[in-house]
Amino acid sequence: MTRVLVAYGSKRGSTAEIAGWIGETLRGQGLETEVADAGTVRDVSAYDAVVLGGALYAGRWHKDARRFARRHAAALSGRPVWLFSSGPLDRSAQEGEIPPVPQAARASAALDACEHRTFGGRLTHDARGFLASAIAERSGGDYRDQDRVRDWALRVAAQVAATEQAKS
Ligand SMILES: Cc1cc2nc3c(=O)[nH]c(=O)nc-3n(C[C@H](O)[C@H](O)[C@H](O)COP(=O)(O)O)c2cc1C
């Protein structure tokens, strides 16, 4: 059985939810999939493939995603890895490919990732914190496109299956 880990770095829960959609889709394609907070994962040796996502804050990739990439780079060498970021509070992520922020690009290089995707984000109008509430007032809302996330997860599933088949 092929095992996949979907790990995420999320502050306000919306990236965690995207990871959950990806996990559900992969499971629907017959892959044994675990979804976990990237900060809690100690060992990746049991997984054949990994999807790692992080929320974007002030142009930075969530620290748990960054740390996961650093900590597990050696163990994941030779295993397929896909990355995603979640952030834009507008429709830009639906309208075209948004390149990774520098930290996610570095993780992509370190993990030799197959692909990186940027998905829209969510900030609720009642978000707390000085900066967050100011941003929420201007551009709060849910800009995540669940269909786009699930379509991407289907592509990941197909590539995982192809990699596993090539091994056997
Ligand atoms: C203070 C603050 C800074 C943010 N900076 C960025 C940013 O630099 N780029 C971006 O695309 N989104 C940015 N966002 C939007 C978040 O990435 C978005 O709300 C995301 O969905 C949060 O994910 P989470 O709920 O998993 O923490 C910012 C949001 C806040 C509150």
UniProtKB/TrEMBL annotation:
GO biological process, one term: heme biosynthetic process
GO MF annotation terms: FMN binding; menaquinone-dependent protoporphyrinogen oxidase activity
InterPro entries the UniProt entry points to: Flavodoxin/NO_synth (IPR008254), Flavodoxin_dom (IPR026816), Flavoprotein-like_sf (IPR029039), Protoporphyrinogen_IX_DH (IPR052200)
Pfam families, A to Z: Flavodoxin_5 (PF12724)
Flavodoxin-like domain boundaries: 4-157
Top-level lineage group: Bacteria
Name this protein carries in UniProt: Flavodoxin
Provenance organism: Microbispora oryzae
